[in-house]
Amino acid sequence: MIPNQPGALVRICEILQKAQINISTLTLADTADFGILRLIIKDWEAAKNALESNALVVKVSDVLAISIPNEPGGLLGILNTLNSNKINVEYMYGFSLATGKQSVQIFRLNDPDHAIDILNKAHICVLGSGELFGN
User: Fold this and answer.
1) Does the CA dihedral 23-61-63-109 come out positive or negative?
2) What is the pLDDT of residues 93-127, one digit of tens each?
3) What's the CATH architecture for 64-133?
4) How far, in Å, CA of 30 to CA of 8, rounded?
5) What is the 3-state secondary structure (H, E, C) of the chain?
6) Distance (Å, rounded) from C-alpha 15 to C-alpha 12?
7) Which residues of the chain are in CATH 3.30.2130.10 domains?
8) What does the alpha-carbon distance between residue 70 and residue 103 come to, in Å, rounded to a whole number?
């Protein structure tokens, strides 16, 4: 959570920049009193340490990055697979890749380990850190 006030996001970005930590993607949602900032960062431990050492509260969550065809119904197939296996989507956000042929959706699921097994069996591409961060 970050304060819902001018400069709050600037402060976080300055802390990460000073620590030489790159943000791969993010989402920011607001409430009346605070914002919920979700970051995808390769070196999440260093980011957590940098932010906490600057008196910010950090919660780490396991998420899955799933490659989805960037076409009508591409997401629906994945959602149907999760739903038929009683896996709940707690939140998600995404971005398209430069090619425009694939998008990456970040999923927070109630049972990520079971989801990985189910998605792999359905031949749905769950990205590893090497594919997501290019290492």
Assistant:
1) negative
2) 988 766 667 889 999 999 999 999 999 999 999 99
3) 2-Layer Sandwich (3.30)
4) 12
5) CEECCCCHHHHHHHHHHHCCCCCCEEEEEECCCEEEEEEECCCHHHHHHHHHCCCCCCCCCCCEEEEEECCCCHHHHHHHHHHHCCCCEEEEEEEECCCCCEEEEEEEECCHHHHHHHHHHCCCCEECHHHHHCC
6) 5
7) 64-133
8) 6
| Amino acid type, 97 | L
Question: Burial level of 53, CB count in 10 A (0-12/13-18/19+)?
Answer: exposed
pTM (two decimals)? 0.84
* Residue pLDDT, tens place only, 32-82: 788 899 999 999 999 999 999 999 999 999 999 999 988 899 899 999 999
Token pair of 77, please? Answer: 């197939």
Distance CA 118, CA 50 (A): 35
CATH level 3 topology of 2-52: Alpha-Beta Plaits (3.30.70)
Rounded Cα gap, residues 90 and 104, in angstroms: 17
